[in-house]
Structures are given as structure tokens and as C-alpha cells.
């Protein structure tokens, strides 16, 4: 979810069912700004605030990883 204006390009912004601005996703659910070859953010300098505070290795991060591991097993 885009809570502040960090300069995310308009073409990467979608609207959720409640009318909020969110990062657009591809059909498989991955963020549209992710370079799938390098697994790096293509808009790193302008990434959303929530992406900036999401701590690598945090409980939330590990939970997301576990869910992804389940999906791609
Ligand atoms: S940090 Fe990840 S989730 Fe956030 S905009 Fe970049 S690719 Fe998307």
C-alpha cells in the first residue's frame, strides 16, 4: 500500500478494492516493480514507505518467505 508519495511511477500504481493506492501486481501476484532476473527492485530509490521499513529477517519477512515457499513447492 502506498501511504506516502515516494515517487512511485504512475504506471506501477493500482487501486485496491477500498480505493487505496497500491503497487500493481503481475498475474502471479509478484510486484510489478521487481526484476525477476535479478530479484531487485527496479524503483529502489522511489520504493514505497512500507518497503523501506520491512525489515529483512523480521518475523513478518520470515512468514512471507514461508508462504512463498509453500506456493512454489
Ligand atoms: S521493494 Fe519489492 S515490493 Fe517494494 S516496490 Fe520494490 S520490488 Fe516492489
What's the layout of helices and strands?
Blueprint: E1 13-15, E2 21-23, E3 34-35, E4 40-41, H1 49-53, H2 59-71
Antiparallel strand pairs: 1-2, 3-4
The protein binds iron/sulfur cluster.
Residues 23, 31, 33-34, 41, 43, 47-48, 51 line the site of iron/sulfur cluster.
Description:
This protein is of the alpha+beta class. The chain has one domain. The protein has two helices and four strands. The strands form two sheets. A two-stranded antiparallel ribbon has the order 1-2. A hairpin with a 5-residue loop joins strand 1 and strand 2. It is globular, with a radius of gyration of 13 Å. The protein starts with 12 loop residues before the first strand and ends with a helix. The model has no long low-confidence stretch (mean pLDDT 92). It binds iron/sulfur cluster (SF4). The site of iron/sulfur cluster (SF4) has 9 residues, from loops. This is Zinc/iron-chelating domain-containing protein. It comes from Pseudomonas turukhanskensis.
Describe, in short, the structure shown.
This protein is an alpha+beta fold and 73 residues long.
Task: Provide key terms for this protein.
two-stranded antiparallel sheet, 25% helix, alpha+beta
